[in-house]
């Protein structure tokens, strides 16, 4: 059944090897970015299952380690003894100074002294693999993501504290996932038969804020933070398992504006994420928009007047988890699946049709003398006043001859931070939260070490902005209802919900309430 994906992955790996990995690292990274940007189009299901992923047998790695933001070695496993023991320190030193050398952030894959380093960053931790062979970059990076997901499933929460407290369990997982550098399985469900250590629960009070994902509510009750950070093998006090399931819609937006405010490019990369604590493998039915269209059909885009209103949702392409059955997807846009335990993406999708961006940014630069200039930044929230954006950060590169910057915030501004990074010549403006419909302004006065000669605009920008917005859906993709097949008349999964779409009346008795969280963390650029 998995023959086609396996053959495809093998052919892909051969392609990577033909690219002379040791020489053309830069080109391979570009190919990798292109591959990640254009996922397979529906109805193809080219996502390898954990078993097929292991059977490919092409991700032979020498070492695996996890580093903290300070470079501390939290987890280290040497599988083959082919790479020097000090590789973790070498890797961190290279990554740390990569940006200071003026080359930007370190790429996910690079070669140093004959050793190929692969890394992904997950919640501030660096998951790294090393090898001397021409391994497929996409396969190894996918392996690192799956290892992080498996560890999170077992520990409940993934951070430095939980890794240190559960290092015995983590090493047991690594020994089962990888044997002598070869992948065995990345399935949480399969690993439960071979891993016997119990996780040590990290005190919820010591956890950092979880952001929008921790604000699950039902009525006027607030859901305990541990409910979405518990282990798949953990039990409630008294030895009982609580039947729960969570669904999140997470979207990452990228929009580029011209200096006059027109949209040049726009794109949404989204995923429907599910985390299941259901026992007995019940069948789940997930209904999406009935007017959902896959592929470019030249149809008009939907009305902008409502952030959750009607209109056709047009996706460029999408792919699905291997457990999803698409028998009824063409007729009623319903996904049927038996979810594996733990967290997994039900569906990934991409949309490049025009949509209304959540923010508008205006930037104005004016000379205020031979050695001075003034920058005015305005940010306006284009969403409803009932929605709030969190952790907003606006950044703007300044001319290289900038020596000093003074800031002026609007009266009554609360929770704002401003900074001038002299080493990188970058202006940073942080806003704790932005309420929909509001507008915020920052004035920055620049002092130069030499005359600009009219090059201020050319050497400034583009302005970038990162943010997170819970309860906001730019693509208008909706989960209409989530239906769980009952095992008995008394079966009633525990209900938590943050954002509920209307439930159809004919399925209301069988529905399990669910959480739909739309968050975005992406960049908006302005050409000045």
In short, what is this structure?
The protein is α+β, with helices and mostly antiparallel strands and 528 residues long. Helix content is 19%, strand content 33%.
Describe this structure in words.
With 528 residues, this protein is of the alpha+beta class. The protein folds into three domains: 3-191, Beta-Lactamase; 245-352 and 472-523, Mu homology domain, subdomain B (Immunoglobulin-like); 359-468, Mu homology domain, subdomain B (Immunoglobulin-like). It contains ten helices and 28 strands. The strands form eight sheets. The chain has a five-stranded antiparallel beta sheet with strand order 2-1-5-4-3, with helices on both faces. A hairpin with a 2-residue loop joins strand 4 (115-122) and strand 5 (125-131). Helix 1 crosses helix 3 (50-56). The chain is globular and about 70 Å long. The N and C termini lie far apart (53 Å). Residues 1-46, 204-227, 298-309 and 494-528 have low confidence and may be disordered. Residues 242-509 form the MHD domain. Keywords: Membrane, Protein transport, Transport. It comes from Cucurbita argyrosperma subsp. sororia.
């Amino acid at each position: 059944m998995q023959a086609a994906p396996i053959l495809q992955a093998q052919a892909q790996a051969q392609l990577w090897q033909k690219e002379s990995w040791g020489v053309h690292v830069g080109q391979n990274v570009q190919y990798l970015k292109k591959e990640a940007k254009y996922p397979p189009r529906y109805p193809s299901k080219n996502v390898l299952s954990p078993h097929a992923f292991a059977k490919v047998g092409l991700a032979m790695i020498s070492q695996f380690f996890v580093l903290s933001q300070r470079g501390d070695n939290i987890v280290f496993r040497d599988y083959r003894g082919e790479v020097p023991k000090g590789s973790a320190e070498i890797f961190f030193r290279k990554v740390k100074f990569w940006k200071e050398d003026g080359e930007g952030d370190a790429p996910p894959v690079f070669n140093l002294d004959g050793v190929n380093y692969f890394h992904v960053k997950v919640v501030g931790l660096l998951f790294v693999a090393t090898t001397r062979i021409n391994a497929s970059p996409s396969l190894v990076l996918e392996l690192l993501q799956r290892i992080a997901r498996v560890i999170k499933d077992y520990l409940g929460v993934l951070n430095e504290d939980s890794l240190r407290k559960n290092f015995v369990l983590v090493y047991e997982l690594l020994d089962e996932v990888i044997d002598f550098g070869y992948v065995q399985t990345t399935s949480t469900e399969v690993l439960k038969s071979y891993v016997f250590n119990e996780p040590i629960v990290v005190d919820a009070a010591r956890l950092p804020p979880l952001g929008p994902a921790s604000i699950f509510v039902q009525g006027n009750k607030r859901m305990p933070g541990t409910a979405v950070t518990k282990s798949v093998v953990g039990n409630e006090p008294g030895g009982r398992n609580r039947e729960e399931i969570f669904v999140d819609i997470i979207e990452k937006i990228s929009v580029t504006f011209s200096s006059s405010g027109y949209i040049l490019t726009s794109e949404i990369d989204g995923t429907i994420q599910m985390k299941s604590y259901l026992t007995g493998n019940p069948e789940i039915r997930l209904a999406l928009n009935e007017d959902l269209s896959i592929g470019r059909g030249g149809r008009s885009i939907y009305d902008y007047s409502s952030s959750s209103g009607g209109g056709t949702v047009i996706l460029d392409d999408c792919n699905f988890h291997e457990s999803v059955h698409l028998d009824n997807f063409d007729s009623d846009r319903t996904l049927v699946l038996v979810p594996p335990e733990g967290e997994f993406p039900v569906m990934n999708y991409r949309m490049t049709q025009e949509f209304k961006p959540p923010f508008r940014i205006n930037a104005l630069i004016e000379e205020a003398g031979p050695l001075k200039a003034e920058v005015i930044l305005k940010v306006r929230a284009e969403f409803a006043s009932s929605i709030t954006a969190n952790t907003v950060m606006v950044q703007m590169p300044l001319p290289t001859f900038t020596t000093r910057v003074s800031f002026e915030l609007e009266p009554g501004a609360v929770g704002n931070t401003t900074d001038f990074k002299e080493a990188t010549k970058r202006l940073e403006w942080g806003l704790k939260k932005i309420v929909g419909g509001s507008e915020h302004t920052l004035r920055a006065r620049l002092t130069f070490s030499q005359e600009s000669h009219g090059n201020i605009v050319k050497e400034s920008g583009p302005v970038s902005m990162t943010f997170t917005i819970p309860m906001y859906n730019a693509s208008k993709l909706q989960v209409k209802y989530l239906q769980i097949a009952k095992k008995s008349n008394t079966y009633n999964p525990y209900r938590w919900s943050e954002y509920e779409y209307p439930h159809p009346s004919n399925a209301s008795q069988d529905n399990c309430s669910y959480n739909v969280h739309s968050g975005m963390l992406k960049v908006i650029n302005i050409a000045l």
